[in-house]
Amino acid sequence: MTQSHPVGTSSERSARTRRTAFGAALTGPAVTVLAACGGPTGAADRPQTAKSYSVTFMTGDNLERSGLGEILDEFRRLNPNAQVEAVSGNDEKLRATMAAGTPPDVARINDNYVLDYAEQKLTQPMDPFMKTSGFRRQDFYELIYDFGVLGGNLGGKRYAWAMGAAGRLLYVNLELFRKSGVKPPPNEKWDVPGWTMDDSLEAARRLTQAPDTWGALIFHNTGYEQTWALNFGHPDGVFSKDGRRFTLADPVSVEAMQWVADLAVRHRAHPDRQTQVKEGAANLFQAGKIGMIFDGFGALGRYRQNLQFEWDVAPVPKKAQRRTVNSLITYGLPAGAKEPQGGWDLLAFTAGAFAGKVFARTGYVISPHRQHAQALVKAGADQPPKALHLFVEAMGYHTLPSVNARNVEELRRVYRPKLYDEVNAGTVSAREMFASVRPAVEALLQKQ
Description:
Elements: E1 25-28, E2 54-59, H1 63-66, H2 68-78, E3 82-88, H3 91-99, E4 106-108, H4 114-119, H5 127-130, H6 142-145, E5 149-150, E6 157-158, E7 161-173, H7 174-180, H8 197-207, E8 214-217, H9 224-231, H10 251-265, H11 273-279, H12 281-286, E9 290-296, H13 300-306, E10 311-314, E11 324-332, H14 340-349, H15 353-362, H16 370-373, H17 375-379, H18 389-393, E12 398-399, H19 408-423, H20 430-445
Parallel strand pairs: 2-3, 2-4, 8-9, 11-12
Antiparallel strand pairs: 1-3, 4-11, 5-6, 7-9, 7-10, 7-11
Helix pairs in contact: 2-15, 9-10, 19-20
């Protein structure tokens, strides 16, 4: 899924000096760190009996803005006899190090690639290391905790750990609602009564003021595919649970995709595709030209810094149910790593109370641990949005396209240009487009 971007400014971060450049050698944890969720809160953050090893931590995220640098520093303080080297890397670099026989010990892996890496034996199971972690599933948001546990020929073993999640909500221009005489979406809690697809359509139409103000902006964020398909009533979303069928082409999902396209094509309550691409979705919202924008947790910092009008967040609308996509920040243990135990120790520490508070302050992710996720609300109590708690509540209504889907990036190149540039531009119907691409997409899903 789309990568989360850190929230907050440098003044909100720790003033403590730390190394932040990728590739800088950091000294770090030396033992299997017991997770806070297995015992008293904060157990993961207590000093342990150290042993010496050297661990390489690969990520594509900025150490300072994400808070990872601060977390590694604290890890080092608690476990002073080990070396931790943080290096910059993406999928291409990770594969290159594996091919060269010099993989890192723990690495960021796109949540869409977890199955492909596991089936290609590029990552190794985490189960042997988790046995000593003290993790209890009930202490976490279960659907997020279970991500990375793969069935089939992979035997139900875990091949990825979700360091955190970043959900998607509606960001709402309250001033535009007030000026238009439209009642804002209810946002006291996630699953509020009402706030249906019909309600959101009516609000979008009433907020629209031709020629340059629109009620809604939805299709700029790719997470709408899964979100709207589920909320219209499809049980799976983009892919079937076994990852073999392209269920975005099923009738109810097609109806959902056409509904979003019609916001622009039929109702003129959404910027057309050309305007959205040319002007930029976030820029249109910041200029006060959008009533409601579907966007992720990663946009929070930008909007806090730039919005000059009163605003808040609200749940997404529903027809049959109310779910949302949470992008997951996932890490794996590469096959052939010299210190996989050390790699796991680092991941275990990120589930603790210290890391949860750092993530809440920087906005990198929301902790998957239920108790530590609440730190987000406390950290943002003096800033908008008032309904910040909805990001935490959304963790309990988590969804992602099937973890069992293969060749996701390749198949997206087949259908997404047609969905965004043709269906959302009104040149072809969703029903016709999905019928035409379904065979090719499902061939890729079933390709070994």
